[in-house]
Structure formats: structure tokens, C-alpha cells
Specification:
mainly beta; six-stranded mixed β-sheet; 32 strands; globular; binds CU-O-CU linkage; binds copper (II) ion
Amino acid sequence: MGTKLKILVLIISILVISACSNDNTQPEEEMDDMDHSTMDHDTMDEHMSHDEVVSLNNSTGENELNVPPILEPDNDDDNQVEYTVRAQTGETEIFDGTKTKTYGYNGSFLGPMLRLEEGKAVKIRTINELDEETTFHWHGLEVTGDADGGPHEFLEPGEEEIIEFDVTQEASTLWFHPHPEGKTAEQVYNGLAGLIYIEDDHSKSLGLPNTYGENDIPLIFQDKTFDDKGQLNFSAAMNDDGTIGETLLINGTLNPKLTVNKEKVRLRLLNGSNARNYTFKLNTGDSFEQIATDGGFLNKPVTLDEITLTPSERAEIIIDFSQLDTENDLTLVNEDGSILLPFNVSEEGGEESSIPEKMNDVSVSEEELSMPVTKQVELFGMMDQVTINGKKFDPERIDFTQEQGVTEVWEIYNKPDEMGGMIHPFHIHGAQFKILSRDGEEPPENERGWKDSISVQPDETVKIAIQFKHKGIYMFHCHILEHEDNGMMGQVKVE
Ligand code: C2O
Ligand code: CU
Ligand code: CU
């Protein structure tokens, strides 16, 4: 190494070390270092900007990935399908030989997958078997406000409630989780999260991989911290700016690996973490195709080398294992190279599937592009000082009203502070929307589909066009769950 280079490396190391040495007893200092703003790929920048985000431990790949069971209906006839979903406590063997206290839906940890058909009427009996209040929120589902499971619709311990709705939206990957005021972060962290797949005739006719658990696989990414007894201790792990951990669970599996055939495999990625952002890529640098966003298919597949998902965002991607060199280890890695999911590629050929060139037709009209902004949302702050339009959540206050079936343009601005600010993942209940622009520019190709959650960078302005199909009171909020619990949430009344 040349002397100049050595000096440079030394300077960089000093900078990095000083940036990384967070002293928890000095909140001001900690805030100084807290800059999530840069998402570019300059290593140095990355290190400085994510300094307080502990890296994930590499997955050793010793456990085969758990795939959530498909929830069996209690009753299914031509008109209506009926399910029971109960929130419960339990014990889960995440570590061999250790019983971890967890929460789950219809089981001890996480939940089953709810497969719904477009056009069908659904009745769900929700039961709260926890010893605290909870709600059942269907993230991304277009339902009336009283079926949406926001903080107003809480169930006391032992209480149950039947909700009914029609599935009126296209094929997509949604999810469900609790939403009690001030307690969402803890309940999700303890394990309350499940998947919803919506299928329709179109999705079934596309010829995409769709054998559940074989070539159509959900991946719920969640990071945790376990104490030395192998327990989740939320209050100890809790961070007001978003609880993160060094231990990754995918579908609740520690150190997962995924065995696949040499075929196209569809992965439905869900960032189900309280606060961590992920940038997924293959260790070989090979590309993959993204086929769907939060709320449905993209018009055409988009080839990517990596994809970033902030909390609550979903993406469906297809990796073609028949085209990859699988002689060497193939793994899904995070931005910093940590191993998230090793693939074990069997020699078997698997199914023939294809990715059609045209999958959907979501378009932004000239009219939508020229519509005036009628709702402005300003995201601001950090820790417990987070606000929307300068205010904290008040269940008694309606922040916006919007007419059912009428498109409006919302403008979301992430106002930086002296420290730079951080990414806020912004989510609206009860609707799927389209991104019109990011800082005045057309959104990237892989965001030109239906969305219900978007990342908003510091100082970025995102314009969206949104229409609510149903009436009711819906939440909009930051999906860093601790920010949500700290009041970074508002309400829109649709009438
Ligand atoms: Cu994932 Cu208010 O929701
Ligand atoms: Cu939601
Ligand atoms: Cu936030």
C-alpha cells in the first residue's frame, strides 16, 4: 500500500470509528450520528449513514425455511368464504432446545397465509386471546374503515368480532398485523404478522410460478434481538427511532436456507421488520426480475440487480435458477453483504413457467399529472419527537377528509432537521395508490405499480394519486412502528 493510500485509509478509519462509537448515555451525540439519509452505494457514505444500524448476523443456513401454512376456511361456498383468525400467545422453538415466548395468529409465532380470491365475499371471525388489547389490521386491503382494524377497532382480551368484506382488488401480496394505539411495535415484534395473497383469474392465467412453498415462496424478513435466555425482550431492545436487531428471522426461521429446483422461483418479499431497511441482492451480482409491487403486478417485469424495501413494503421477484451458475454458493445478501438466505439448488428441473412481457396496465393519466395537490403531508422528526404536519396522533382528530371514489393528489414531504433526517416509510390504509413523481421526476420503473407504502428520503417530495373505494376512517402513518406508536400518524375520513 502506498503511503498516501495508507494515510487516507487511516483518516477514513478514524472517521468511521468516531461515527460508529455511539454513547447511549448521550442522546445529543447519538442524534448527531443519526443520518439515514444516504442510500447511495458509496461504501464510506453508507458506513457513516447507517452507523447505528447494527449488521445482521450471517445465516448459517442450517435450518430449512419454514413456509407459513395456508389457512383453511371454516366454510367455503360460492358466495362466501369464512375464516377464523385468533391472536394468541405461545412458545416457539426458534433456537434448538429453547422455548421462546412469542405471539402468533392461529399458532405460536407469526400467522398462516390467507389466500383470497378477487370477487369473493369474505367473513373473518377475529378473536383476541391475548391478555391485552389488539386489533386486526389488513395492510393493503381495500375495505371499509370499520373492517380495517385501525386503532379504533380494538378488541379487549377475550373479545371477538366478525368482519365482512368483498375482495375488490387485483392479485397482490398483502399482510396483516395488529394496530393498537401505542402498542403496535411490541405486538408485531413479538410475532403478530401474517400474509394475505389475493389471486384473480388474470394472475392464474399468466403462467408465472405459483406452486405455493415450491416455486412461489413468501419471505417475511424480521430482525430481532434475543436476550441470553433466548427471549424477546421488547422493552430492553426498544429504540424510539425504530427497534432493530442483529438476528434475522425469515418466516420465523433462524439461520434459514431455501431449497429450490432449477427453475424460475417467485419470491414474495415482505419487509415485516419494525424499522430496518433491506437492500436485497444476489451474492453473485446476478440480476432478477421484479414482477409486482405492494398492490399488484407491474405492467412488465423490471430487471434489477438489487431492490430496497423499507418497512411494510412488498415486492415479488423471480430468480431463474435454471439460468444461474449454481456450482458455487448462491445466497441472497443484504446491502452490506451479510448473508440473509443461502439457496440450496437441487439438480431437479422443476416446472416450466414464464414471465409474460405484459402483466398489467397501471398508468398515470395526463389528468392525474396535472391535478393540483390537495393534501400535504409533512413528515418530521426522530425518536419520540416525530410528527406529521407538526402534530402527533390524536384519535379524536380527523386530519383530512376525502370523497369516496374521487382521486386526489397527496404530496408527502420529508422535512430534514439539522442532523439531516432519516427515511420515513409512509403508508396509507384502505387504498392502493400510484406514485406520480419523486422530487418532480418520474418514479423508477419498478415503482410504477400499485403501492400502499413508500420510502420517503430526507428532503424528498413524493406525489401520489390516491382514490378510496370505500368509506371510513383510515390511518396514514410512518411504518417505522415505533414512530407510529410515538404519534407519527394521522387520519383521513372518507365519506
Ligand atoms: Cu401496516 Cu397502519 O399498517
Ligand atoms: Cu396498513
Ligand atoms: Cu418515521
